Amino acid sequence: MAKEEKAPKAEKEKKGLSMVVLLPILLIVVVGGSIGGTLVTNHFLTGEKTAAAETAKDSSKISSDEAIVALDEFLVNLAKEDNQEQQYMKVNLSILVADEEKSAEAAKNVAVIRDSVVNLLRQQKASGILSSAESVPNLKKALKETINQEYGSEIAKDVYVTDLVIQ
Hints:
Blueprint: H1 2-60, E1 67-70, E2 74-77, E3 88-97, H2 100-108, H3 110-122, H4 126-130, H5 135-151, E4 158-166
Antiparallel strand pairs: 1-3, 2-3, 3-4
């Protein structure tokens, strides 16, 4: 009987010893894999995102020569839609000009710019402005083209909508 009791104790000691050795090794492998995976992921995935983000940042920056001219608030009646009440649009715009000289010209000829903006906005319908994600960028492009056409030369390099409310 004494031999039978000693045999299970020896097996239990071997199992306990193997668990004591196996757990730290398993823990080291898991931690090492996590660290390695993180480093590899950051190196390959973040590098592409960073390059794309830097390109986007560079394209949206305003150079030191360029200037922004803020226009006063526009409040216009929008074109009436079928069976709809009259809707209004309140918008604040700023235009990007090439340099300080063009900025002074824009300030001097603000009436021409405002007139072209009002005439274009009055032709718009609320559903057309709010219909899709591309509608506001398309409106900005149309505003830029209209301002430049009415002015007679390219004064506006870009148009920024700083506030937009349709009621």
